[in-house]
Amino acid sequence: MLNSKKIGFIGTGNMGEALIGGIISSGSSSPENIICSDVGKKRLAFMQKTYGIRTTTDNSEVAASSDIVIYAVKPQIIAAVLRETADKLDMSKLIISIAAGVPMEAIEVALGKELRLIRVMPNVAALVKEGATAIASGKHALKEDIELAMSIFNSVGKSIFLKENYLMDAVTGLSGSGPAYIFLIIDALADAGVKVGLSRKQSIVLATQTVLGSAKMLQETGAHPGQLKDMVTSPGGTAIAGLHNLEKGGLRTTLINAVEAATNRSKELGEIMTKNFSENGGIR
Predict the structure, then answer these.
(1) What is the mean pLDDT of residues 265-271?
(2) Which CATH code for domain 2-169?
(3) Using only C-alpha atoms, what is the Rg of the chain?
(4) Residue 236: what pLDDT?
(5) Residue-level pLDDT at 59
(6) 106-129: per-residue pLDDT in tens?
(7) Inter-CA distances, 90 with 107, 108, 111, 161, Å
């Protein structure tokens, strides 16, 4: 289904490139069906040489020639890019935004027209094809549009569909910001390894593989995390002693508070973005 569509990427930063590479390597689409735009000519030359896709510096050309238009630009400039391409957008096209923190309402206000709109919140792990992505749809998006969006983002990891758009802030707090929490945890585990006598290199390898292996075990078994935790904790053993100290230090509460704080901040930023788009009167 995706292979029959012309796909346009406005912006070819890390996430844009990850998606292009993912859908080509997965066979979901072919290079001749993809066009991308960017302000950097060297960047475009790299994309053309690496992936064999069409490139242009004209965002409007991408919007006009694509069945699916993916806005992979920074939130600070999406309003300007939407303004630039608005007259090329209509109900014949699927519009996907991955601009972090920009709510559906802000985009709808900015464009001021009915469109088949999808908002996506991926995370940085898409760069290694292990992204966690949530997808929400606007009121005019079709079931086929949701399936197309999930096909694109499943090429760089796993995606879920949210019926409730407002939960995108929760996704931002959990999986969008989550890699930062995990990197901090790995760094702390490595520090702990150094403290008890391991080298820094040894500690990083062991901490990283431990997190990776634990996540894969959870994913492949489908077991509850608590069940797998119990497999590791023998009576009077080392793991239960370590867990006792983690609970005493409030790790569980601290992580919950971190996700909640990031969620609330995402809501605040979204409200600011919607207000700014509204005060600018949308796109004429």
Answers:
(1) 91
(2) 3.40.50.720
(3) 21
(4) 96
(5) 96
(6) 888 888 889 999 999 999 999 999
(7) 14, 12, 10, 23
Structural domain boundaries in the chain: 2-169, 177-249
DSSP 237: -
Name the token pair of 261: 């704080």
CA distances from 74 to 12, 14, 188, 267 (A): 11, 11, 31, 17
Q: Residue 165 has which token pair? A: 């758009």
Count of CB atoms within 10 A of residue 209's CB? 10
Secondary structure (3-state) at 239: helix
Half-sphere exposure of 69 (CA within 13 A, CB side): 27
- Give pLDDT tens digits for 91-108: 999 999 998 888 888 888
User: If you average pLDDT over residues 193-204, what whole number do you get?
Assistant: 98
Packing angle between helix 41-51 and helix 14-25, nearest 10 degrees? 20
CATH of domain 177-249: 1.10.3730.10
| Bridge partners, 247 (sequence order) | none
Rounded (to 5) percent helix, strand, coil in the chain: 60, 15, 25
Q: What is the mean pLDDT of residues 19-36?
A: 94
78 to 50, 55, 83, 98, 165: CA distances (angstroms): 26, 19, 8, 10, 19
CA 204, 206, 210, 212 torsion-angle sign: positive
